[in-house]
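Let's study my pick:
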Amino acid sequence: MAAPYACPVTIHPDHPFMPPTGDRDPLRRLRGRMPAPVTVWASGVDADRTGLTVSSLIVANGHPAHVLGVIDGDSDWWGSAPEAVVVNLMGEQHRFLADAFAGTAPAPGGPFRLGSWTDTAWGPALEDSAGWLGVRLLEETREVGWGLLVEGVVERVEVGEADALIHLRGRYE
């Protein structure tokens, strides 16, 4: 029995969804050349856990230290209105997990089933991460670009054994 329609398959050397070179956003291209750590910001407990992959962040040392992140204000994580968060620094072995929290990879039953997590006073901490921060979020946010600038005070620091996963030019390094 013949298929109801025919769909030709072609192989192209370029990414099928990439705009032509002259139409690409130069700021996005430059930003893509800046290595960024891959983190999962996680909050909640048990069935109320939620998280989001974030690479736009900075840790500012001081007494107290602060974390600033650019967060998608429309994300489910931000919609849960967290007061505290664990900023989990992903390791090399967490590529798929980072994609699951970004919503670009499947996670039947939710992405928290893809790793071993420990509940803390700030939220879920990934047990084999490259490290994590326990952060109390400040109430003030403001729009920056297409995201929200979220700031928090670092209350705890845990350093893991794994090397950090880096995002560079659209790929993990």
In short: The longest strand covers residues 131-144. The chain has a mean pLDDT of 89. Residues 49 and 93 are 22 Å apart (CA to CA). The longest helix spans residues 95-102.
